[in-house]
């Protein structure tokens, strides 16, 4: 006699049906990204199959791998950003240092040029006495009948005939000829626009139009013109002609000559 399987709500599903339900549950959990020990009533009511590789396990592993990859990528991006920021900061510091070094170099160069210019100006503005190792024997504006104006328009330096006479500074010769009561005389237009005169010379060493330098020999002293003995007559003038004289002592001292 054949036995027929009982039917009813307590009838247990056959094995193919249980397997289908398990796979469906796992697929649902995997698709929803759920990682937990949660099962549907159908799964809870069935026997647990022996442990083996399932879709849920693969999903969990893949999720862990993806999370690790994203974290590693974020770390790499953060490290790259920090490196770029550090490089930008280093470049900014280097540029600032380079700009500062350039500024200091330019300032040093300007200071050097200024110092050289000042030194040259001082050199050009510093005169020497027209006769070396001498002294003033007759002062400026001294009164005497020897001079047609009634007073001395320059100063006299003690000098024997043939003594070397020097240009007190740099300039251009505008006169080198006989000058009446001055005898043989030289007039030089100085670089600052003033004029100097050297009188009673015995001979010339320069000619009109010639440029002279500070200390250059321009003549030899003598006793030509209106004199009582050999000496050098020296005048400082604002112009090339007689009557424009200024105090030669103050003039020479203002240019560094101790007389």
UniProtKB/TrEMBL annotation:
Signal peptide positions (record): 1-44
Record keywords: Signal
M23ase beta-sheet core domain location: 151-245
Superkingdom: Bacteria
Keyword Phosphoprotein: no
InterPro entries listed in its UniProt record: Cell_wall_metabolism_enzyme, Dup_hybrid_motif, M23ase_b-sheet_dom
Protein name in UniProt: Peptidase
Species the sequence originates in: Streptomyces kronopolitis
Lineage, opening ranks: Bacteria, Bacillati, Actinomycetota, Actinomycetes, Kitasatosporales
